[in-house]
Every structure is written in C-alpha cells, then in structure tokens.
Specification:
The complex is a heterodimer. By secondary structure, chain A is an alpha/beta fold. In chain A, about 40% of the residues lie in helices and about 25% in strands. Chain A has a single domain, classed as Rossmann fold. Chain A is built from five helices and five strands, in the order βαβαβαβαβα. The radius of gyration of chain A is 14 Å and the shape is globular. Chain B has five domains: about 110 residues, Beta-Lactamase (2-Layer Sandwich); about 130 residues, Beta-Lactamase (2-Layer Sandwich); about 100 residues, Beta-Lactamase (2-Layer Sandwich), CATH 3.30.450; about 80 residues; about 150 residues, Heat Shock Protein 90 (2-Layer Sandwich), CATH 3.30.565. In chain B, β3 and β4 form a beta hairpin. Chain B is rod-shaped and about 195 Å long. The termini of chain B are far apart. Classes of the chains: A alpha/beta, B alpha+beta.
C-alpha cells in the first residue's frame, strides 16, 4: 500500500472534500489529511509549517473556484516558495471552461513536479499514477 | 520844346531809353538806361551803340538798319547787364522822325523781361504739372460765371463726362449728367446754395456719362467773391470710379468676412500683444455674456476670468508671441460668467504683418459641451454594454461552475452509495445527498434572485428616508448584533433621502452590516460607522467597520463574486455581496470598497437621489 505523509485538500465545497477524503482512505495510508476552505487558508498553513517545522504536504488536491484566494492565485504564491521537497498538485474542478484548461497548461511547465487537471465528478483516484510520475522523473 | 527840355525828358524817362543817330551813335540816354547797362555817359556817348560791351554787333546792327528804313523792330537780347547779373531784355527800336517826316535817328527802349520769362517758364512748368496731375488723379476743373451764366469745363472734366473737347456745357446739362433722383437733386441744391449763400461743398455722387457709363465722382465747388458779391463758382471734378469700385469690393469682402465671423458658431477674437482684445465676434460676445463687442474691446482675460485662469491664458499668449507658433485644437475647461465650466476646443494663431512681425493673436474657440455630452453618453452606453456583457459571462461562468459542481457531487455520491457495503456509511452518504440537494436548491433560488434583479429593469424606485431604512435594518439584526457585541454609530443628517427599491435597499444594508460583523477583528469589539453625504445628484452611504480588512490588490475582484459557499456555511461570504452588487447596479448605482488589512473596510454605496 502506498504510504503518504501529508495531504492537503483545498476546496470550499464540503461534499467534494468529503469525497476526496473517502477516496484517500480507501486507496492509501496517509497520516495527515488537512482540509482548507480556500487558497489563503492553505497558504497560511504552509507558511506556518515552514517556519515551525510542521508537515509540508506531499500531495495537494486543489479546487480552482474559491472565494478570497482561488486555485490559480494559490499556485502563483506557491511558486514563490523555495521548497526543498517536491510537491504534487492535483487540480479537481467542476469547471469545463476552456480558459481554465489553458491556464492549467501555462502553469504545468512552471511547476517543479507534476500538475494534474481533473474534472469532477471523480469516482476514483489513481495514486500510483499520481505519485509514480515523480519517481520516473 | 527846347533841346534841353528834350534832354531832360529823356533823362527822366522811367523806361531805359536811348536816342541814337543814324550812325547808331548814342546821343542821349535816360538815367535808367545808364543804370541798367552799367555805363557812364562820358564813356559811351557819341560812340556807336555796338560798342557797348553788352551788345553783340552783328545782331544789333542788322535790325537797327531795318529800323532806319522805317520799320519799328523788336529785339530780344540775352545779355549780361553786369558782371554778376544775367538778364533778358527786349529792345524796342522806333524810328525817330523830324518835322519833315525824315528819320533822323532811333529811339531804343529796353525792357527787362528776365522775370517775365522766368514766370513764363514757371507757368509752363506748372501748367504741365497740373495737366499731369489732372491726368493722373483724374481731377478736372470747372468754372461758372454767374453774370454770364457761362460754365466752362477743363479738358479733364470733359473727358470724365466723355464729351468731345469742343463740348459747350451749361448748368442744366451739367446737372443732368447726375443720376436722376437723390443724386441730381442734391447736386442742384449744392450748386444753388453755393451761388446764393456762398456755401462751399464737396460731395460724392454718381453720374451717367455721354456714352451711358456710370461713374463715381467727387464734385467740389466754392464761391469767388468780389466785394460782397459772389461772382463766380469754381470747383473740381474728380473721377473716383476706380477707387470706389475697389473700395466697394473691399467693403463687400469685409462684409462677407464680418457676416462669416459673426455667424460662424465659433468664438473668434483678435488680441494685441498685451493680450487685449481688438476684435471679437458675436459668438464671443454671447459666450462672455456681453451685448456688444464694444464691451470687450481693450479688455483682457483678467477682466473675465479669475487671476489663475487669466495668468494661465496670458502665459499661453506670451508663448505664442515668443515662439511664433500656433496652438491648435487644445482642449480645456473654461468657466463662463455664469460660473459654469464648459469644455472648449481652442486654437490660437499668431498674426503677422507684411513685414513678418507678430502684431496680434487670432483666437478661435468652440464650446464642445454637447460633443462631450454625446461622447459621455456613448461612453456610458459602452460601459453599460460591456458591464452587461461581463455579467453575462459571469453568469455563464456561475452556471458552469456552480451547477456543474452540484451535479458532479450527485454523481460522485451516488457512485459511492452504489459501491458502499457498510450501512452506516450508506446512511452518511444519503445524508450528504440530501445536503447536496438542499445546496442545489439554494443555488437555484439564488440564481433566480439574480436573474430577477437583472431582468426587472424597470424596478419601482421611491424616495426613501435613509435614517428610517437603517433603523429598520438594525431592528432586524438586533439579536445578531447583540450576540456579537457590535456597536453601531449612525451619523446621517435627518432628512437624507435616496432613490431606491425598498426591498433592495433593505437587503443591501443588511448584507453589508452583517459582513462587517462577521469579519470583525478578533482583538477588538466591532464598531460600525454609518455616514452619508451628497455628491452631485447622488447620495453616498458609507458603512465603515474596524474589522479584518481585505487586501484589495489580491482579493478585490473576488469580493463581489459568486461562490459555492452560502450563508448557511460558517464562512458566509458567498452570494450575499454578489446579489448586493447586482441590486445596486440594477438601480443605477455603484458599490465600492476601501480597505486596509488589519484596520477595517468601508463600503461606499452610491445611489441616485
């Protein structure tokens, strides 16, 4: 079984967050799963963890359309942080808007690790695929 | 008569006279002769006249001989009367007869004609000059003898009338040359007054010449008196047709120019180098609110604008004078006398004289208020259109995100439910499904509200008392505010009104107040200040809190957006402000936020009054 230390779920929709959590626990063993209502809350937590040595996530499930700080703004802030750990980000969105797809394409090349894009509904998560990409690279 | 008597007689003759014998010897001479020819009696008496130094022998003797034959002669002489004086003399030689009718000598009489000749030359010169002048200026003369009723015209006068040189004018014929009616009557009156009252005159009139050509002439006349009596009228007659035609053309051109500048819908003025006006048109008078140009001539911008504006304009003039370069189509706001600011399009052009030196500035300006108004209307229209377009896109976005989000949740939960074996877990999933259904219902209700707001364009708006409305909202929130220990201060002048749909205004005030309390700073009691002020035709309601504040650079654009988080969630920022914004804009108003992180936020709601 795949073992992951820390996973963030950044989504203002409680049902989606519930679904993701359920799929995580079904497929892998994970010590810490943290939920955030928007990008700002998640970013605050990352920064706090960096300063107090708390857990830095291995994988982030990121929604795009959120209040206060949306998914794209989160990625912009994320790119400014010099992590010594490569983090996989998996976008889960209900958006079928082509401009969102285009934005994802533009962020993909700038990310240190893979940046995935998934359109809801999600019924399963292939963690092997998600995390093995890193091993391959 | 004795010889002595004769001698004395000759001596005393005033005209220089000499008596010669038949051999042309000088017998007697008058004192005047001796004086004239600068000789003494002793020297030349008894000697032939030809020996006088002034005479040239051959010329004189031949003629004197003719005289001896009985023919009186006239001799013309140029001679040096003395060493310094050159004179012209005319000598008259008359044979001297004795009682027996025999010629016994010659009487020689000299006449100094120098000055006469000189005058003759001068006269000729003057005459030529006069003729030339008359030709050049087309000035003829006329003369009328009252006693003989004889009218004479100079050649030029005849030429102007286009009559032959032998034409004999008379007063009636002369007056008939003037165009009948006023012209003819007035010349007859002038002539009459000149003759009777001795009044001189000068008048411009029109004549019809002998060939039927119309000419402009200036006729002058004045009386010549002898004693108390007027005996003649003399005067000049000048053809001024060319000048008159040229002048008329200039006048016509001026007329056109004046008509043009007075009727063109542009303000036109000319300023001298001291920026004082020397010409203004009607539009400029109207603009500055004066009835006629006289009130503007000689005045500067300091007389019409405040010091600051006038100095600015003067500086601009000086720059044009200095650089000799025009300023074209400059846009500026100008305060009229009525105190209204109007946009003007101004051009200033340096005017140069023929020598190339600047002597004035020509200003042309146009009131472009109506143009600007149209432009603004157009801009507003574009803004409305683009705003509506934005709303449409936003709405489409909401549909694609929000509705899809719910349906995706349904799919996911149903899929989980189908695969779930555990009953407890199944129950949980069913609960979640009902929650999702509830959420979808809410979303649809909210979307319906938004659609309502945006389709109900002609929503009924009333003048509402702002204090009254706020009181109502506070009552509705009483429990909530008490629970949160929030303090609300209202500082709005009594009687402040605004125009709004009552239900919308209620919702707007409620939402903003709630928001202010929800985002209160954890370290301090929430204090909310409500103020209002008039801004033109609008009333601006400001709701200021001392809460967390918002980083507008980062999150400003998300503040009024629509998200999945609704008011039943812990985080209430969802559709509330989205609906508020839609309601404000549906009533033709605006809503804006000012904020500093950690200090608070102020919502400014601007609505028409």
């Amino acid at each position: 079984m795949i073992n992951v230390d820390t996973i963030y779920i950044v989504d203002d929709d409680t049902i989606t967050a519930f679904g993701i959590k359920k799929l995580i626990h079904k497929s892998i063993s994970c010590q810490t799963v943290l939920e955030f209502k928007n990008g700002k809350e998640a970013m605050n937590h990352i920064q706090a963890s960096l300063s107090n040595g708390g857990p830095i996530p291995d994988l982030i499930f990121l929604d795009i359309n959120m209040p206060i700080m949306d998914g794209w703004q989160f990625l912009e802030e994320f790119l400014k942080i010099p992590f010594n750990k490569k983090i996989v980000i998996n976008i889960i969105t209900s958006s079928i808007d082509q401009t969102d797809v285009n934005t994802w394409e533009s962020y993909k090349s700038r990310m240190p690790r893979r940046l995935y894009y998934n359109i809801k509904p999600i019924f399963s998560i292939d963690f092997k695929e998600l995390l093995s990409a890193d091993i391959a690279s | 008569m004795t010889l002595t008597t004769v001698n004395n007689l000759v001596k005393q003759l005033p005209t220089p006279t000499a008596l010669l014998d038949t051999d042309f010897k000088l017998l007697h001479a008058s004192h005047s002769w001796l004086e004239h020819f600068d000789c003494t009696r002793n020297q030349y008496f008894g000697k032939c006249i030809s020996q006088l130094p002034q005479f040239i022998e051959s010329q004189v003797l031949a003629q004197l001989k003719f005289c001896l034959e009985g023919t009186p002669q006239k001799l013309l002489f140029d001679t040096n009367a003395s060493a310094t004086q050159y004179k012209n003399y005319q000598f008259t030689c008359t044979p001297l007869y004795n009682e027996n009718e025999n010629i016994i000598g010659i009487i020689l009489q000299a006449e100094d004609i120098s000055s006469y000749l000189e005058n003759e030359v001068r006269f000729e010169k003057l005459e030529n000059l006069l003729k030339d002048q008359s030709e050049m200026t087309k000035v003829g003369t006329w003369e009328y003898h009252i006693a003989t009723e004889e009218l004479t015209w100079s050649n030029m006068t005849k030429k102007i009338h286009e009559v032959p040189e032998d034409f004999q004018p008379n007063v009636d014929a002369a007056i008939d040359f003037y165009i009948s009616g006023h012209e003819r009557n007035s010349i007859a009156m002038f002539f009459h007054n000149g003759m009777i009252k001795g009044q001189p005159w000068t008048t411009k009139s029109k004549i019809k010449t002998a060939t039927g050509k119309e000419k402009w002439v200036i006729t002058s006349g004045k009386p010549v008196h002898r004693g108390n009596q007027i005996i003649r009228l003399v005067g000049t007659f000048q053809d001024i047709t060319e000048q008159e035609v040229a002048e008329q053309q200039i006048r016509e051109r001026e007329q056109i120019l004046h008509t043009l500048i007075d009727n063109i819908p542009l303000n036109i003025y000319i300023k001298d180098l001291n920026s004082k006006k020397i010409l203004v048109n009607k539009a400029e008078c109207d603009f500055l609110g004066v009835p006629n140009p006289q009130e503007l001539i000689g005045k500067s911008d300091y007389d019409f604008f405040d010091e600051e504006m006038a100095t600015k304009l003067r500086d601009e003039d000086l720059e044009i004078i200095f650089n000799e370069k025009p300023v074209f189509s400059k846009e500026r706001m100008v305060a009229t006398r009525a105190g209204k600011e109007v946009p003007m399009l101004v051009s200033k052009i340096p005017l140069k004289n023929l020598g190339g030196q600047i002597y004035a500035i020509l200003g042309i300006s146009m009131n472009i208020s109506s143009l600007k108004e149209k432009e603004n209307e157009l801009r507003k229209l574009i803004n409305v259109t683009s705003e509506q377009n934005k709303k449409l896109i936003n709405f489409a976005h909401i549909i694609s995100h929000n509705l899809r989000s719910h349906t995706a949740n349904f799919s996911m939960l149903l899929e989980f439910l189908m695969q779930e074996q555990d009953d407890k877990e199944k129950e949980k999933l069913v609960n979640m499904l009902s929650q999702a259904s509830q959420s979808l219902m809410e979303t649809l209700e909210n979307l319906n509200i938004v659609v309502d707001i945006n389709t109900n364009i002609n929503i009924e708006q009333e003048h509402l008392d702002l204090n009254e409305k706020i009181k109502q909202s506070l009552k509705a929130l009483e429990a909530f505010l008490k629970q949160k220990k929030a303090k609300v201060k209202i500082d709005i002048p009594a009687g402040t009104t605004l125009k709004a749909a009552p239900a919308y205004l209620d919702n707007i005030i409620l939402n903003v107040l709630k928001n202010a309390v929800i985002y209160a700073h954890p370290d301090r009691t929430p204090v909310i200040n409500l103020t209002a002020k008039k801004e033109g035709d609008a009333t601006v309601l400001s709701i200021k809190d001392n809460g967390l504040g918002i980083d507008l650079d980062k999150y400003g654009d998300k503040l009024f957006g629509m998200y999945k988080t609704f008011h039943n969630n812990k985080d209430a920022r969802g559709i509330g402000l989205y609906i508020v914004k839609n309601q404000v804009e549906a009533m033709g108003g605006t809503i804006e936020v000012e904020s500093k992180v950690g200090i608070g936020a102020t919502f400014n709601i601007r609505l028409n009054d």
